[in-house]
Design goal:
Number of helices: 2
Distance between the termini: 131 Å
Structural class: alpha+beta
Helix content: 10-25%
Strand content: 15-25%
Number of strands: 10
Order of helices and strands: HHEEEEEEEEEE
Shape: elongated
Radius of gyration: 49 Å
Largest sheet: 10 strands, mixed
């Protein structure tokens, strides 16, 4: 009897050892399976569905579409766009001390240039300010180039209302530099007192330059049709002299030009 009991006990121990070994071998297999499943889901490119907010059964399709639509920024929240100025045309109004309406004065002054009867010097008239500044100077040495004032010479065709109705012969010539804040281009148009197309007339007047018998030459400038005089100047001191310009038929076609007529002009901006 004892011999049989020992046999059963030995068989039981062997079964227990066998079951234990089976579980011992099963654990690594489960671990390997779990790791492989995780890796496959991570690297296989299979995207997990995003969680969606709960939707009430009674919510309409229209409301769901509006809620899921992309948000568009309100125009009022966009940064403000700066509008750059388009003006800046600068011109000189010869013969006047104030700018036309719509333009701002940069500065006013008197007209200067080279003496009428010399060969050298500058040919362009200058609008000289009345508050000059000085750099390094030497008053003991005479300079080679000279700067004089300017005078009207026998002006004709002008409206002398701004001069009290009297002629401005031998009067000094004032000037003002003007800037148009709304227009960017400027031109001096000879032989017309009206501008072309949509160009704007800043002022109109008469073309003036030096006398052909004088040694020096000056540029043609457009002097305002209603000129003023410099209140400080009526001393007939000469300097740069401004004469009316007339046409001469020949190489200049007549018509449309006419012999001896004063040539008009206009300063136009756009």
């Amino acid at each position: 009897m004892s011999f049989m009991w020992r046999g059963v006990s030995s068989l039981t121990d062997r079964l227990r050892s066998f079951v234990f070994l089976r579980y011992l071998l099963l654990v690594p297999l489960l671990v390997v399976f779990a790791v492989g499943t995780y890796s496959f889901g991570r690297y296989s490119g299979i995207a997990k569905p995003e969680s969606q907010p709960a939707v009430n059964d009674g919510e309409s399709v229209h409301l769901r579409e509006r809620r899921n639509a992309p948000t568009i920024a309100s125009p009022s929240l966009q940064p403000e766009q700066k509008v750059l100025p388009t003006g800046g045309a600068v011109y000189t109004r010869w013969g006047r001390t104030e700018c036309p309406n719509g333009s701002e004065a940069v500065y006013s002054g008197i007209t200067g240039g080279s003496f009428f009867n010399i060969h050298g010097g500058g040919s362009n008239p200058l609008c000289l300010p009345m508050d000059p500044l000085w750099g390094t100077y030497n008053e003991n040495v005479e300079k080679g180039s000279k700067l004089y004032g300017a005078e009207y010479e026998s002006p004709s065709g002008f409206d002398f209302a701004n001069a009290g109705g009297s002629s401005l012969h031998d009067h000094n010539v004032p000037c003002v530099v003007c800037r148009s804040p709304t227009r960017g281009s400027v031109l001096m148009l000879p032989a017309r007192n009206l501008c072309y197309g949509d160009w704007h007339v800043e002022y109109a007047g008469y073309l003036m330059s030096s006398h052909p018998a004088h040694n020096g030459r000056t540029q043609f400038v457009c002097v305002d049709g209603s000129p003023e005089s410099d209140p400080a100047g009526f001393r007939d001191e000469n300097g740069a002299l401004f004469y009316n310009v007339e046409g001469v038929c020949g190489s200049l076609p007549c018509p449309p030009y006419v012999q001896r007529r004063e040539i008009v002009c206009a300063v136009c901006t756009k």
